[in-house]
TrEMBL record:
Organism: Embleya hyalina
Name of this chain's protein: Protein Ves
Top-level taxon of origin: Bacteria
One Pfam family this sequence matches: HutD
InterPro entries: RmlC-like_jellyroll, RmlC_Cupin_sf, Uncharacterised_HutD/Ves
């Protein structure tokens, strides 16, 4: 069966952003050789919970695809100029609906502006190295299959869930992550529960 790892967002290590605009709580970071393998800057995929506390730039991640999902707060407006090295069109996106993922290229340099009263927001951040991994992030309300050969993250938004191992039951703010497994498994959610599932699969 796929081996899962339990996490609680409130006990994850916290690292401040270099520009002072927020902080990051890392869930998992898988290098080319698997979790903890290789150069951390050359990760295969990475999952984290970020707090955006002030207006300011997002650091670019060339060669990386990103998906962020609002978890708490009024939201944030993401803005990028057009043209430049990527030749991309201008971007102006309001991330103001909880549990609705937004995917974009990490090659782009984005600016973030807090919405509403300007209070801090919290987002789930999934990053995959283009050409190695790709991610599909979605809202789920039923037991989640863990496909063989896929990695992933499950973050509980409401309700409860079980994870088939030692430790406390899943509740909002807790979740699971796993690397590619040798056999299919299932991360069950109790009826009425809602979670975010990032299915991370090799290219």
């Amino acid at each position: 069966m796929t081996q899962t790892h339990l996490f609680d967002v409130e006990t994850l290590p916290v690292g401040p952003w270099r520009n002072g605009g927020g902080d990051t709580r890392e869930i998992a970071c898988a290098g080319p050789a698997g979790p903890g393998g290789g150069d951390p800057a050359d990760f295969g995929w990475r999952a984290s919970i970020a707090t955006i506390a002030a207006d300011g730039p997002f650091s670019p991640f060339p060669g990386v695809d990103r998906t962020i999902t609002l978890l708490a707060g009024d939201g944030v407006r993401l803005i990028a100029d057009g043209g430049g090295a990527t030749g991309a069109a201008p971007l102006d996106h309001r991330l103001d609906r909880a549990a609705v993922p937004f995917a974009f290229s990490g090659d782009r340099t984005l600016r973030a502006r807090l919405l509403g009263d300007g209070g801090a927001v919290r987002v789930l951040n999934i990053m995959t190295r283009r050409g190695r991994w790709t991610a599909d992030v979605r809202r789920v309300d039923a037991p989640v299959p863990l496909p063989a050969g896929h990695a992933g993250v499950l973050y509980l938004l409401s309700g409860r869930g079980t994870h088939g191992g030692p430790g406390p039951a899943l509740r909002p703010g807790r979740g699971l992550w796993w690397t590619s497994g040798a056999a299919d498994g299932t991360a069950p959610l109790e009826p009425g529960s809602v979670a975010l599932w990032a299915d991370i699969r090799p290219v």
